[in-house]
Input
Amino acid sequence: MAADAKAETVVLAVTGMTWGSCPGNVQSALANVEGVSKVTVDKGNSTATVLLDRNKLSNDQLIAALKKSNGGKYGATVK
Output
């Protein structure tokens, strides 16, 4: 992240992760959002932990990007 970045960790409760490939799909969808620097997905707990630049990205934008990916299969709320 750039020196002027405001790093923040957000934990999302993710819905729709029913298959073995889902964590990878969620990780890819979130990692490709501008302002995200790291994503860790835990299928067992149905969560995604995201390190992001708060100056570039809001929680709503992050959730919208996930919902838009993979045909709207995944949903999320902030834990």
About this structure: The chain is about 25% helix and 35% strand. The chain has a mean pLDDT of 93. The longest helix spans residues 22-31. The two ends are 24 Å apart (CA to CA).
